[in-house]
Amino acid sequence: MDAMPIAEYDRGWEERWDDMKRYGPMSRHIRRNIKQLIRPLQFQSVLDIGCGQGSLLAELRTEFPHIEVFGSDFSTSAVRMARRQVDGGEYCVFDLVQGNLNRQFDLIVCSEVLEHIPDDRAALRNLAAMTGKYLVISTVQGRMRRFEAGEVGHVRNYAYGELAQKVEAAGMNVLKVVEWGFPFYSPLYRDVIDLTNTRGTMGTFGPGRKLLSQMIYAIFLLNSSRVGDEIFLLAGKP
Length: 238
Known about the structure:
Elements: H1 6-15, H2 18-23, H3 25-38, E1 45-49, H4 55-63, E2 68-73, H5 76-85, E3 90-93, E4 105-111, H6 120-130, E5 131-140, H7 146-149, H8 162-169, E6 173-180, H9 184-196, H10 207-220, E7 230-236
Parallel strand pairs: 1-2, 1-4, 2-3, 4-5
Antiparallel strand pairs: 5-7, 6-7
Helix pairs in contact: 1-5, 3-10
């Protein structure tokens, strides 16, 4: 399966995904789980690979005001939006498969990226080369829905246990894996999105959609943190 063309990512950030990342219940829970995973860690420099329009970096800067912020994305539009949202950082357009940035960072976050990359083994090797202390990955596993393969641009959903095996093969030590989201995110929410062809999840969020998103976010707090199709993996240097 081929990756989505870069022009589609640029158009997605310019027209469809900004409010979804800001207000969408799943995006907010991804950020919440990542922050929960990294709070015990000691780090100064943070690189967000696939930073999108900067929502995660903005929250990290607020909670950890001492950090040095770095962001990269495949999309020029996303990098431009992130630079506007989180000032004082360093940003670049970067293809994770083609190489690394020739430096290391205390913490790298790679959130909702690897499922879009055909050669994820090369991407993981480059992530390992740039990791000074810790690497956090979030992605999805289990049955792929039609909207994930189409509108969202997934080339894979990981099999259970596959991500940890590939991270270890790239030379990192897996320290913790959180599988989150059963039952309200997956299967229920993912199946509803599939049936409605992502209707209501993208574009501009008005007051009604923001309220509905907040209600779904509250329901998602009842999801299991031991069973689910959303994976949060923490790895460290050997």
